[in-house]
Amino acid sequence: MANTVTNANGIIAQAAQAQMEASKPKKPGAIMQSLLDNEQTKKILQNALHENADSYAASILDLYNSDKTLQQCQPKLVFGECLKAVSLKLPINKQLGFAYVVAYKGIPQFQIGYKGLIQLCMRTGQYKHINAGEVYEGEYQGYSKLTGELDISGERTSDKVIGYFAYLETLNGFTHSMYWTREEVERHAKKYSKSFSYSSSAWKTDFDKMAVKTMLRNLLSHYGYMSVEMMNAFSAEEPKKATEETSAQDDDIVDVDATIVDTNTGEVTEQELFDNDISVQN
After folding, report:
1. Residue 132 forms beta bridges with which residues?
2. Are 100 and 115 in contact (CB under 8 A)?
3. Backbone phi, then psi, for 49, in 5-degree steps?
4. Strand 175-181 and strand 142-143: pairing?
5. Where are the beta strands (DSSP E) in 22-106?
6. Is this structure's pTM higher than 0.70?
7. CB-based contact 71:50 (threshold 8 Å)
8. Could you tell me the pLDDT band of residue 5, with boundaries at 50, 70 and 90?
9. CA within 13 Å, CB half, 28
């Protein structure tokens, strides 16, 4: 009888302990793991990525577990933004620089990287040359409004970055270039990125990188070959609208450019950037 009571007490204690463990709030990483282990989630990734589905799921979990700001977001919302990268078949690993999911005040947002833009351009098979980068003091020689040609063939005289350029040439011979001074890029960032003033903003930690991507993105949206995939990429970067679920505030706007793509018509429109599409240094 005593043994029976002892065993019963042990079972009850184990059950109580299990109930206590079950009632504890799960850690964010555990919730994301559960989401990725879900059969429907696995099917989504499998259909899109086939044999790469498992490794991509692991990269999503690694991204989430290594980013404390993302852990403040709902795992299902983070996964939803990751799916945008999945649909474009771009890796989500931060170190690779193709695509990112970043958090602003508890709201995750997909962002395509500079390398991601180049990758999508390459897939179209329409480009012969495409480039973007910094312009250093002494290099800028002028811009032709008539032909759209930019001359940055001057000899570099210092390490001071005075502006940024982007250039494309398609296989059918069409070419176009764009140049903004550093001040113009900064004005653009201040106007369209409400995270610009944050110390953790990419504009503060790596201004040149953000500026180069901004130049390339604007050149492509104005003059590039807009494949369906490219239109989807631009649309995916549009900031989230406020909902009851996300409780977005006015400041929850990410570092994306003011390009809007109509996915039904393919029309690309631009919010007011400057008086002219292409600005040059006087």
Report:
1. 166
2. no
3. -115, -10
4. unpaired
5. 99-104
6. yes
7. no
8. very low
9. 20
